[in-house]
Amino acid sequence: MNEWYARDISKKIRSAYKTKALNGEFTGAYPPYGYDKNPDNKHQLVINNQKALIVRQIYDLYLDVTSIYKIARILKESKVYTPRTDLYKTQGVYESEHVKKYPYEWAPQTVMSILMNEVYIGTIICNKHQTRTFKTKELKRNPESKWIKSKYKHEPIISEDVFNKVQEMILENKRLPRTPHINIFKGKVRCDSCGKTLALSIRNDRNVYGSLSCSTYRRYGKERCSSHYITYDYLIEYIKTRINKLIDLSKLGEKQFTDKIIKRTALIKSKEFLEGELQKLLRRQENITILVKKMFEKYINDKITESKFYELDTIYDLEKIEVKENIKIIEDKINTINLQINDISTFYVMMSKHNEIKDLTREDIIRLIDKIIIKERKGSNKKRLVEVYYTLVGKL
User: Fold this and answer.
1) How far apart are CA 53 and CA 55, in angstroms?
2) Which of 78, 211, 212, 344 has the most CB atoms lying inside 10 A of its own CB?
3) Span 46-68, mean pLDDT?
4) What is the secondary structure of 94-139 as a DSSP string?
5) Residue 166 lies in a domain
6) Which residues span the domain enclosing 278?
């Protein structure tokens, strides 16, 4: 009955929203950038003159053949609040450290979304997204055929001629990929400073085939992160060499392979240290039991007072609880290490199935590599420092 009631309410709400959409009413929580909600009718948009100037500036700049990246930079240099920051300042929503720290950091994607939004020619578009079912808030994007468009429902900021001209320019500026090359490291290479992925760029005007650099640096510049620049060819050779060394090691047999890997990961030393700490705690647990027993005998024989007995008994009880908790923590850590040692055996089986890799593929990276961390520092050979985390065994 509860589910039936929830489904019925969901249908009624969707029906109400659809009716509003068909009537051309604005149903969003917050108005799009450049507009405010009419104080007398929250379903109608009215122009915010100050923000509308920014919208017109964006369109004018693009018509002057200014790239969206340069437009974003101009807005940033002019200290114009981003739409997200503006909502935070005016509505108190979308609070985040990013908004507070970088209130003028316009993203090229934000500029593009303004350039392609039909709301600026007086059109309301509804039913772009909807929840999959009444049981979840997860949204799915509807096909354009299901969108509900209502034209001339509010005062436009941009004329239709200007808007259509901009759309033509956007289509003309869309470039096909220069090469069908696939980045085999996609999603696997990360910056050690900000944690974001490194993006591949291919430049025909350079001697190297392609290079990877921090996506935060590429988007925001050196004030947010450094480039972590590394050539694509060098990274392929580096990873291929590292994997081939492990393959060669696996040919020596499982024992030698696992012993070497365990030694590199320092698992045995960690396990021995934890086992030593565990023995100390177990001995202390036994000693507390003995001390409490002796103390009770003294109390029975009137060698200590009742108040002193209960005072010491409470102290030992608390220590015993703490010791017991620490024993559980250390046992869990030891079990984790044992699982890691077992994973090394599984990793050996994976590596022993390979012969020398001559051409590194995306499948090899997915199967064998968990992640690759690129350091900003360089080694003695002037090459970028790289940390490789393998599937199952982690960093080696």
Assistant:
1) 5
2) 212
3) 92
4) S--HHHHH-TT---HHHHHHHHT-GGGGT-EEE-SEEESSTT---E
5) yes
6) 236-395
